[in-house]
Amino acid sequence: MRVLGIETSCDETGVAVYDSQQGLLADCLFSQTEVHAKYGGIVPELASRDHIRKTLPMIREVLALASTEIHELEGIAYTAGPGLMGALLVGASLGRALGMSLDIPSIGVHHMEGHLLAPMLEADPPQFPFVALLVSGGHTQLVEVKGIGLYRMLGESLDDAAGEAFDKVGKMLGLAYPGGPRVAALAVSGTHGRFTFPRPMTNRPGLEFSFSGLKTAVRNTLAEQAALSTAGVVDEQTKADVACAFEEAVVQTLVIKCRRALEATGMKSLVIAGGVSANRRLREVLQEMVDKQRSRLFYAQNRFCTDNGAMIAYAGCQRLMAGQHDDLQIITRARWPLESLPPLTLDTARSQE
Ligand code: KG4
Ligand code: ZN
């Protein structure tokens, strides 16, 4: 089955063509970073307007790259949530309209299921069951995954998501949005051990996360350092040292919880997905941990860790092949619990739910 995937849930327009026999045929991505840069965060209305401008031309482009005529498509998958309502509606209406005009099934995909399944696009994909750590700008979740749609939430963040904490700390350090990759790059020149930040919620049992206290600790340290300096500003090396200590605190916290989740479930495979799974230090420390546990670590290549159309095309294709599809209504959801998704074996259209 050949499926077009459309991702417009936030500030990236992503489209891709995935074929169940031949794999990923092509994908295109446009990041709106520059559109939002001067506001220091995403402006939802600007995001929607830019998706309107970009999505259709990008669909034409990706079809050409995939050497696919539009009539050769057999299904359409679009992100239906969670995300920004206006932004989601652009991809959903376009996807739904294309499906209707081509008379092929279409399906609304859960954005986090897309992330979770992205490592399946790699040459050596994980096998079910596994534990998944979903770490993006909006979510930090540990999930037991027994199959597509067979999800049990093991723990999640009680406040900020890991990516959100990276972005906020980036802002404090004077870095452009999104801060995550920039904080990680700055941390490379930091001195390990000059500062130490708390590893939130690790000294008690459980698999929940909390990153807002860590963010406050960073803010206080930067204020102290500014007060100590004669010029009243934090020098570049100190910023790098703070970035390094912050990254280490997030990484160690995530690693401790992942180890606990593997132990609690008895599973031997750990999948990390979402933007923060592109973090090199996180991958490095997790690899050491899984090696000790005689387990395996899986993640997608960097461009499929952050938002993209390929993961939506892949996830949608699996569900469409199982006979699931949406009815005539266009349903998008700002919030959408991952655990509410139907398993693949439930061979019914969502319209019959
Ligand atoms: O999955 P994603 O593209 O979008 C959401 O679904 O939220 O994740 C974006 C998040 C941002 O917070 C970004 O700063 C973070 O992922 N991120 C990183 C890195 N690359 C992206 N955080 C830390 N280190 C990175 N290398
Ligand atoms: Zn995402």
Structural class: alpha/beta
Ions, cofactors and other ligands present here are: 5'-O-[(R)-(carboxyoxy)(hydroxy)phosphoryl]adenosine, zinc ion
How many helical stretches?
10
Total strands: 10
The percent of residues in helical segments reads 40-55%
* Distance from first to last alpha carbon: 24 Å
Provide a descriptive summary of the structure in words:
The protein has about 350 residues and is α/β, with parallel strands linked by helices. It has 10 helices and 10 strands. The chain has helices at about 35, 45-65, 85-100, 110-115, 160-170, 180-185, 210-230, 235-265, 280-290, 310-320; strands at about 1-5, 10-20, 25-30, 75-80, 105-110, 130-135, 140-145, 150-155, 270-275, 295-300. The strands form 2 sheets. A 5-stranded mixed beta sheet has the order 3-2-1-4-5, sandwiched between helices. A 5-stranded mixed beta sheet has the order 8-7-6-9-10, with helices on both faces. It starts with a strand and ends in a 32-residue tail after the last helix. Mean pLDDT is about 95; it is low at about 345-353.
